[in-house]
Amino acid sequence: xxxxxxxxxxxxxxxxxxxxxxxxxxxxxxxxxxxxxxxxxxxxxxxxxxxxxxxxxxxxxxxxxxxxxxxxxxxxxxxxxxxxxxxxxxxxxxxxxxxxxxxxxxxxxxxxxxxxxxxxxxxxxxxxxxxxxxxxxxxxxxxxxxxxxxxxxxxxxxxxxxxxxxxxxxxxxxxxxxxxxxxxxxxxxxxxxxxxxxxxxxxxxxxxxxxxxxxxxxxxxxxxxxxxxxxxxxxxxxxxxxxxxxxxxxxxxxxxxxxxxxxxxxxxxxxxxxxxxxxxxxxxxxxxxxxxxxxxxxxxxxxxxxxxxxxxxxxxxxxxxxxxxxxxxxxxxxxxxxxxxxxxx
Length: 345
Known about the structure:
- 38% of the residues lie in helices and 14% in strands.
- By secondary structure, it is α+β, with helices and mostly antiparallel strands.
- The chain has 2 domains: 58-108 and 275-336, no CATH class; 110-206 and 218-258, Ribonucleotide Reductase Protein R1, domain 1, CATH 1.10.40.
- Strand 8 (291-299) and strand 9 (308-317) form a beta hairpin.
């Protein structure tokens, strides 16, 4: 009898041990779950704090940029008086401790809504597509599709696309039959979205505009735009851009790119305008973030209606966050960018 009682007590102690282990395991799992939730909450809070700070910095930088555009005039060499000026060719400048800005003159881009893209105009689009390695045949198809997208009729070009083609891929409402409203609208044009090269890190939307003006400024153009608009070889265009950005003294590249005849209002190069447009595309981004803001700004410091107008603002992804700005030149002091005004006695 005593042996049986001892066995029962031993069995009970075994059950209690197992129960205690189970309770401890459950408590450990609960503590781990709570700890993970707390860790996730802290991480999300830090990410939210970083986002709020970045937005604040970008808004402050935008206000500083708009102030600069309100008072600083444009010259053929850029924004402000040389040597304290900013290039308008997309070069990067440090606007604050953590915000980088770039200004792009729209005359340095290829216009998708030019007055006429037929004839010589379509060659520009085809050459632009060729800088991404698009074949001549494919470039012709994409250009025809773009022209059909823009025109107001339902007549299909040889390699183009009208309502029937859009209907076959179930995107008939995408056909505008009018000018593009934004550069991202290119993805709605038949066949354009299916060419991955155009939407890589150096996307085509960074090289085109939807402004209706057809003038072109080679002094603010990147190499792809120079190839498209002037027909120069890619290596030549890259060399011109590199030389422009490292030169200590501004040189008008109009005659270098287009040769003789620049400045003749009645010649075949009358579309060349070496002076920057009143419309700029400003890109603001904060260091360490994978996105930024882009604005289309009309710079009108001499107009009575206002010093500037913002036509569009949108958020853009930045595939490579800026990890260092040590090689980025700071934006000159606004006072140094202004022309000297002679005192009146």
